[in-house]
């Protein structure tokens, strides 16, 4: 392939992966900006957690608990944006600009209603939401203060998700990458000023962190909308064009989008229940899992970005009716993810003590966090193959219902019951509960491989 087959065979590499120059060229152009953007987004959360960590353990737990509600919201808006991008990537491959605009109209309408619902819920019942996760009075008070303010960022965040995914789907991933850099710089600077009271500002603690997040998210949304509607942009259209959809088109669209929304939303709800189980163990467990969750997200950036690239590249090929190339790309992505996942898992294990040295928390919380990171590192390879196959390859292939079935059956029949059995009934330490939950990934891996080998995951949803 590309005149290099002999060289790669002599080196002992699989030609179908490392000899596919077109695959790696497209992957590099698309995935690198996604990697940088996702890294920036994860770094934003890491900076928030580190800065709040200098204030106190209750503050770390409060922000972590409040962000569980945002996490649930995040899963719903990610589902809408990701489901829309399945259509956009395939329509882009087939040259269907008019339908891209209509899909964006459905997405914007859906996200505005979703953002409004979650914002009103957070403003109206902040104490009840925080109380679901923690019995600590201090954590409840701090978390409610944070949630009342940060919910103002929900609608701008929802729109940012959609336009960021849409730009990626038409191979303009560098645009949201640059805008994410502006957002993280804004958030970090305002965090420093408002949390600690620098440059004459009052010391606001968790309230300052919430205000900084709102400002950064609004800036991000404004810049993305400006970039998306510039002259000659694919998305530049009159509002009536965005709203040029009927009930039949919405039904067709939601036949694909709804399983993705349910997949992400119910997966997010299950993850929140994990946090609720940790909260029953104690504040120290909450602090440890909040910190390790942020660190884990940072390490997941590369494979999550590979998944994003897989969705777009495979979707483009299917939309262009290049089914054979789509299958080759899927095989390449799976092998690449396995190699990267094993390497990063080892890095997590080795770097865990150094990473945790950045946090000012109790020795007990730090010890629990260290063990959790070791468990995560040991299972990282399998986790990332599952992730790329489900939200990248299968979703890019339009196989959204199987994604929903695999994710939810393993989480709700295995992970969630084991979490509460371990935390509430068996009263195990938090690191043991995390290890129990990891069982679901092994079962999920088996299901994913069976579906992949069947070859039934390719669907041209633009023709259905």
Biggest sheet layout: none
Taking Cα atoms only, what radius of gyration do you get, to the nearest Å?
22 Å
Stretches where pLDDT falls below 50 for ≥5 residues?
1-16
* Count of helical stretches: 19
Give the strand tally. 0
Q: Report, as a whole number of angstroms, the end-to-end distance.
A: 34 Å
Mean pLDDT: 85
The percentage of residues in β strands lies in: under 5%
Helix content: over 70%
Q: Which shape, going by the Cα principal axes? A: globular
| Helix-strand sequence | HHHHHHHHHHHHHHHHHHH
Q: Structural class of the secondary elements?
A: mainly alpha
Helix/strand layout:
Blueprint: H1 5-11, H2 15-18, H3 21-53, H4 57-94, H5 97-124, H6 126-131, H7 137-150, H8 154-169, H9 174-196, H10 206-228, H11 239-242, H12 247-281, H13 283-299, H14 301-319, H15 323-356, H16 363-396, H17 400-425, H18 430-437, H19 439-454
């Amino acid at each position: 392939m590309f005149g290099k087959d002999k060289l790669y065979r002599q080196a002992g590499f699989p030609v179908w992966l490392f000899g596919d120059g077109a695959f790696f060229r497209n992957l590099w152009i698309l995935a690198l900006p996604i990697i940088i953007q996702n890294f920036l987004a994860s770094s934003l959360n890491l900076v928030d957690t580190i800065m709040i960590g200098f204030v106190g353990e209750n503050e770390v737990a409060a922000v972590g608990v409040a962000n569980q509600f945002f996490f649930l919201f995040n899963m719903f808006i990610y589902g809408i944006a990701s489901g829309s991008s399945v259509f956009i990537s395939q329509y882009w491959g087939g040259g269907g600009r008019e339908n891209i605009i209509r899909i964006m109209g459905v997405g914007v309408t859906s996200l505005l209603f979703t953002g409004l619902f979650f914002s009103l819920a957070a403003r109206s019942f902040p104490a009840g939401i925080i109380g679901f996760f923690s019995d600590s009075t201090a954590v409840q008070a701090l978390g409610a203060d944070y949630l009342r303010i940060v919910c103002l960022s929900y609608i701008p965040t929802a729109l940012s998700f959609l336009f960021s995914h849409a730009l990626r789907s038409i191979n303009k991933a560098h645009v949201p990458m640059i805008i994410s850099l502006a957002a993280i710089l804004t958030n970090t600077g305002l965090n420093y000023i408002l949390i600690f009271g620098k440059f004459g500002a009052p010391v606001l603690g968790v309230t300052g962190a919430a205000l900084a997040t709102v400002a950064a998210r609004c800036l991000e949304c404004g810049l993305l909308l400006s970039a998306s509607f510039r002259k000659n942009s694919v998305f530049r259209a009159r509002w009536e064009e965005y709203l040029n959809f009927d009930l039949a088109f919405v039904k067709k669209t939601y036949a694909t989008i709804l399983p993705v929304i349910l997949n992400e939303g119910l997966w997010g709800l299950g993850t929140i229940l994990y946090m609720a189980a940790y909260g029953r163990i104690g504040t120290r467990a909450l602090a440890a899992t909040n910190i390790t969750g942020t660190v884990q997200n940072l390490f997941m950036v590369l494979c999550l970005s590979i998944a994003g690239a897989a969705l777009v590249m495979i979707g483009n090929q299917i939309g262009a009716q290049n089914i054979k190339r789509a299958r080759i790309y899927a095989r390449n992505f799976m092998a690449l993810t396995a190699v990267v996942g094993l390497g990063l898992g080892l890095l997590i294990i080795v770097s865990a003590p150094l990473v945790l040295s950045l946090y000012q928390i109790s020795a007990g919380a730090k010890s629990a966090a260290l063990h959790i990171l070791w468990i995560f590192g040991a299972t990282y390879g399998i986790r990332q193959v599952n992730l790329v196959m489900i939200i990248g390859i299968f979703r890019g292939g339009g196989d959204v219902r199987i994604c929903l079935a695999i994710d939810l059956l393993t989480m709700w029949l295995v992970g969630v019951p084991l979490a509460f059995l371990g935390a509430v009934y068996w009263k195990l330490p938090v690191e043991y509960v995390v290890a129990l939950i990891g069982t679901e990934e092994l079962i999920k891996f088996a299901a994913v491989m069976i579906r992949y080998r069947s070859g039934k995951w390719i669907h041209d949803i633009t023709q259905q």
